[in-house]
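User: Can you predict the 3D structure for this chain?
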Amino acid sequence: MKKNMLQRPVRAFFLMLILTLSGCSIGQVVQPWEKETLARPEMTFEGDPLDAKYVEHIYSSKEGASGGAGVGGGGCGCN
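Assistant: Here is the predicted structure, written as structure tokens:
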């Protein structure tokens, strides 16, 4: 009797876990005509490549260190 009482919460936990994980698996498939919208430059983390290089240069100059981002030279801006 005691074993049966302990199995109920365990079964309920696994049932809730299965229901939760099955809800996470429902996704929407990206259609071929929607891929053009997702591939725009505005959808990237770095929208403008020139602006990203500028920010990287300023950061490496202010930081006073080189390396890690593929930038050579010292903190003074010398190469």
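Helices lie at 2-24, 35-38, 49-63. The two ends are 78 Å apart (CA to CA).
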